[in-house]
Amino acid sequence: MGRYFGRKLAIYALTFFVAVTINWLIPRFMPGDPVSRMVARAGMQTPEGVAAMREYYSSLFGFDVPVWQQYLNFWGGLLTGDLGVSLWAFPQPVSSIIVAAVPYTLGLLIPAILLSWWAGNKFGAYAARKKVLDNTVLPIWYVLTATPYMWLAILLAWALGKVAGLFPVGRTFSASLRPEWSWVFVTDLVSHWFLPFLSLFLVAFGGWAIGMRNMVIYELESDYAHYLGALGAPGKLVRRYAFRNAMLPQITGLALQLGVIVGGAVVTEIVFDYRGLGYLVLEAIKSSDFFLLQGIFLFIVIGVLVANFIIDVVYVLVDPRTRAGMGGGA
Amino acid sequence: MLHVDDLRVHYRTLRGDVRALDGVSFSVADREIMGLVGESGSGKTTLGKSLIRLDGRMRHVGGTVTLDGTELPIGDDGRMNAFRFNDVSIVPQYAMSAMNPTRRIGTMIRELVTSRGIRFDTVRSELDRRLDLVGLDREVLDRYPIELSGGMKQRMVMVISTLLNPKLLVADEVTSALDVSTQRAVALALAGFRDRDLVHAMIVITHDVSLVYQIADTILVMYAGKLAEKAPTDVIVERPLHPYTRALIAALPEVGVQYAGKRLTGIPGGPPSLRPPPPGCRFRDRCPVAFDRCAEQPPFVEVEPGHSVACWRAS
Amino acid sequence: MSDDPSATKDAFTASGTGREALFFARRNRKLVGGGVVVLVFLLVALTGPWFTTDDPLAYVGPPGAGPSGEFWFGTTTFGQDVLAQFVHGLRATFFVGTVAALIAGVLGMVVGFTAGYRGGLVDEVLTMITNVVLVLPVLAVLMIIAAYLEVRNIEVQALIIGLFSWPWVARAVRAQTLSLRAREFVDLARLSGAPVRRIVFREIAPNMASYLFMVFILLFGGSVLFAATLDFIGLGPTDGVSLGLMLNHAKQWSAMDLGMWWWFVPPGLGITSVVGALYIMNVGLDEVFNPKLRET
């Protein structure tokens, strides 16, 4: 078991190292001079402004020292939580802007991921044993998982928000309100939250349901299921075993899908002007705020790695084979 | 006492039915261990499955199976359930993966037994005795299947399958996944169940004549969905009448020595298609002694007490 | 199931498996239905641009008009023909999907084959790399790279998507190679002194052909969705159109608020139909090649 976690942690540490290195390398490897490009994009009109910006960026990138020291400085800054200063919201530090936005994104992501996973597993297992349901519902699930997150978000926002007027579209809470623990504010927050949540939930749900349905069918064809059947065990017991065992690959699948769902949350937030990380991504791209964009990148990587580790722990708790010290491999 | 009478089981495929069992009749007496021998595709596994649970593509076309005077509803999966485990049981060829990998073995047995309407307490002490019998620690019940070796899993499955003292046990290729030294131990453990009268009759399906020679009282040879020969073990080994049986025995380097080849090396060719089978004796094309009469299917007849054969040359 | 009677059929019909697969393929409603949808869209993507304007961004009609006889899919706020953008965008979608899937497929196959076939230290290193790229959130990486690219076109987009989408393929191919390597026919080939390259391409690859085709479909679908996402957040091609860019423009110019559904429905519907139809085809293919799943 120690070996299992050791291996996993080594991979995560290496991944983090690679991500940070990518973050450091890309601005330096791209064709052209990143400083003049940034200055050009910032669209400064006066020569003094251009000069000031040029100096500012050069010192931020740390181009006045050798490359290896630039790299070490980059790590140094990172480890002290210094991700630079945002241009979009100048002069706020990138880290504080991100920290303020993260709760909203997590508030969308965590319920959407957990509920879609849970419901998808339940429905998928159910469909696996009802032939009629399977044939009607399976194509719908496939279409759902093929839907781009932002398109479903746009459709929901338009149909349920604009046309039917059931939910507000835009922002995290009404501009007239201030965050507080009041009934008015909380209901406002939830009504703004619901559509982005639903849109994330639906797309992810299709994928989980398909995965579970296929896994259960596979498990029902496995040797232990046949043996129990030959000994006259009722279908209920066999299905219970199949469901439990089919959950294991679904847990692994959760880890693999995290990146995609986070991407889905980014575009969904953009559709709804929801003020989480996705909104920051859009603003950062629009205003060429590379520090902010890179900071968000690192935050997403860290978040995905932490989530991966949590899933590993859960997996060990659920699969006795890893606990028995046998499944030390990947 | 098991009677199988003119049993016909077909496999459904798109290009017509495969007559995997084409009119099979034989009996197994109480306390008899019958070895069932044949090549891949001879129908021996189909026969084993027919006695306990047809798989999805199999269809019971005709014939009856009677166990101690009661006809088994082998074509009716639901009604057959009452007989499974209690009266008929199986040690499957996939014993290595027959147990749910994510349940402790003891928990799985408890849930299985409870699901059949039997209180676990009532079989608990018997379960412990059986574990002692096959030489397994009682604490294996607290372990997961992955923690057991191949031989241990095999013996564990034997204990589970025979827990309710079935009248008939079908053991399907029980040793093919094991190494030579374990094979013998498992074979003897099987015989032990019969000797202690925990199982009334037993059918041991194998492609390995030398294995059944050690434990079987009689041997039934199948070829291409039909019976070729049945006789007491020593008769089959010393005085086989059917040319196919002779080829099988001749392929043994020495009786009692491990024989690993699955194909008949001595006879070129393979079994005919059973979709539908050719007329006449099915072994005709590979038979060294075939003659005109073999264009007609030879009946499976008793040539001396306890010795039946389906060959024109023998009768 | 050594005793399965269907095993005997191979002895007398050598070409049986291929013909049987074709038979089931034609009969499979999921495969045929999905295939028809994909083909129709592909045809529209290939021939559509001939029938519409060459420049889908040109201002050709009245601003913000709904679907009409002249402009079947209506026009944008600026009077651009939505249908013209749609058919050009569809072309970009097929291009990105195909190229990215080919790059990722080849990369994944090479890494997976090599790791599975060579084993040892090579395997350790390649598996480590695979696992690292696997946990990296692909979209976030693509976002950073695309943001720093000054000029973006669909070729570069396809390339970067392909370069980061291969790990799961490598993993699956490695596992398959490991299991195939253990089989008899490969041993036979090795004993007869055949070079590694030949064993891989003559013996192992054909056995995985159907599997790789399904992998390609999944990669295609994933790449199309990645591309659409990048386009939507404003990191799409800086010239030309794509379905994702159409959604980006529709959102940017408040098509939702203006009720211009004809602007944002077609691009999303195009992506969903093509990818969804491919996924359903995949299920059909699985049923064709995996007899256990056939509905007989």
UniProtKB/TrEMBL annotation, chain A:
PROSITE patterns linked: ABC_TM1
Keywords in alphabetical order: Membrane, Transmembrane, Transmembrane helix, Transport
Domain ABC transmembrane type-1 span(s) in chain numbering: 102-311
CDD domains linked: TM_PBP2
Pfam family, one: BPD_transp_1
Membrane association type: Multi-pass membrane protein
Source taxon at top rank: Bacteria
Transmembrane segments: 9-26, 97-120, 140-160, 181-204, 254-272, 292-318
Compartments (UniProt record): Cell membrane; Membrane
Stated family: Belongs to the binding-protein-dependent transport system permease family.
Protein name per Swiss-Prot or TrEMBL: ABC transporter permease
Organism lineage string: Bacteria, Bacillati, Actinomycetota, Actinomycetes, Pseudonocardiales
UniProtKB/TrEMBL annotation, chain C:
TM regions (residue ranges): 31-51, 92-113, 125-148, 154-173, 211-235, 261-285
Membrane topology, record value: Multi-pass membrane protein
PROSITE patterns listed in its UniProt record: ABC_TM1 (PS50928)
Keyword Magnesium assigned: no
Major site of localization recorded for this protein: membrane
Record keywords: Cell membrane, Membrane, Transmembrane, Transmembrane helix, Transport
UniProt entry tagged with the keyword Translocase: no
Gene3D superfamilies per the UniProt record, alphabetical: MetI-like (1.10.3720.10)
Coiled-coil region: none
Ranges where the ABC transmembrane type-1 domain occurs: 90-282
InterPro entries according to UniProt: BP-dependent_transpt_permease, MetI-like, MetI-like_sf
Subcellular location: Cell membrane
Family: Belongs to the binding-protein-dependent transport system permease family.
This protein's name: ABC transporter permease
Organism, as annotated: Actinophytocola gossypii
Lineage, highest ranks first: Bacteria, Bacillati, Actinomycetota, Actinomycetes, Pseudonocardiales
